[in-house]
Amino acid sequence: MQAPCVFLAFEDEWALACKIAQAAGWPLLRVERHVFPDGEIQLRLPPELPARVALLRSLNDPNRKLIELLLAARTARELGATHLTLVAPYMAYMRQDVAFQPGEAVSQRIVGQYLADLFHAVVTVDPHLHRVHRLQDAVPIPQAWVLSAAPLLSDFAFQRCPDLLLMGPDEESEQWIAQGARQHQLDHAVCRKIRRGDRQVDIALPDMPVTGRAVVLLDDIASSGQTLAQAARLLRQAGARSVDVAVTHALFSGDALQRIVNAGVGRVWSTDSVAHSSNSVSIAGLVAEALLQACPA
Ligand code: R5P
User: Pairing between strand 28-35 and 5-10?
Assistant: First the structure.
């Protein structure tokens, strides 16, 4: 008898895939990938699939992975899948939610529609929703599970530093700070940020004393690391006893991690939504719970 639902994953996300599959009690099967010398990709899926299939692909390195999703989803349908769930712990292209200049592509809407055309359901963690508040307004798909790692990360930080001050580096982080602070009634605040370019941000600290405080900066994404580095530098200058960082998605492009450490950050923690040396907290249990709702036996 075929399993009611299988979980597919690529080799480079196998560690997270194993944890999710084990927590959900689902069979895990591999998508094989070959990259030709000219960069084209060939995928091979298990040749027989049940009606319900979930595919793990966290969308860091998005341009390559979006093509993989196109190939994988279309092939899965040809092989028998009739209900496809995308598990994208990190959902890319969510930050460009309006055209700031005439003629700019609103990537969130375009990529969202692309995913909605391929999949029936999506499970994601802390998507960067700012001016668009509901994921389904960005990804118009019948079923969407939006999970947050903020409580897991703040709990992890609290265990290591019970007197912490939880701080968001910008106004957009308010949603995660509120969730993270709630369970342990943590002192919390957010900074204000003006972005002047890809790698240039100006940050203003909130109007509250930080002298002698152990601050944990919590955010959804560390990309260039400028946001966290700038906030950490100001906090240290203002007398914070320590500054640690907790992020859901550890993109850390180029020398981002070093930049953050150079700014005076002690510890850097992240979830395993994107594989990185800073991974300290697993989202596998959260994702598995959502999957069991998305694809009941
Ligand atoms: C945007 O506001 C996000 O929440 C992050 O703060 C931002 O994407 C981080 O980018 P970077 O690390 O390049 O400063």
Answer: parallel
Q: Is 230 in the pocket of ligand 1 (CB under 6 A)?
A: no
Quickly count: other Cβ atoms within 10 Å of residue 242's Cβ: 17
Q: How far apart are CA 233 and CA 13, in angstroms?
A: 34
Mean pLDDT score, 38-66 = 97
CB of 89 shorter than 6 A to ligand 1: no
Nearest atom in ligand 1 to the alpha carbon of residue 223 is: 12
- What is the distance in A from the centroid of ligand 1 to the CA of 222? 6
Q: Determine if ligand 1 sits within 6 Å of the CB of residue 170.
A: yes
d(CA 62, CA 80): 26
Does pTM top 0.85 for this prediction? yes
Say how far apart CA 170 and CA 218 lie, in whole Å.
10
Q: Which atom of ligand 1 is nearest to the CA of 201?
A: 14
pLDDT digits (tens, 9 = 90+) for 78-111: 999 999 999 999 999 999 999 999 999 999 999 9
pLDDT 10s digits, 3-22: 679 999 999 999 999 999 99
Contacts by residues 252-258 (CB-CB < 8 Å, ≥ 24 positions apart): 252/222, 252/223, 252/225, 252/276, 252/278, 253/223, 253/224, 253/225, 254/224, 255/225, 256/222, 256/223, 256/224, 256/225, 257/225
Task: Give the full edge-to-edge strand order of the sheet including 187-190.
Answer: 187-190, 165-168, 214-222, 242-250, 268-271, 279-281
The whole-angstrom distance between residue 14's C-alpha and the CA centroid of its chain comes to 17
> Furthest-apart CA pair in the chain: how many Å?
64
Are the beta carbons of 92 and 124 closer than 8 angstroms?
Answer: no
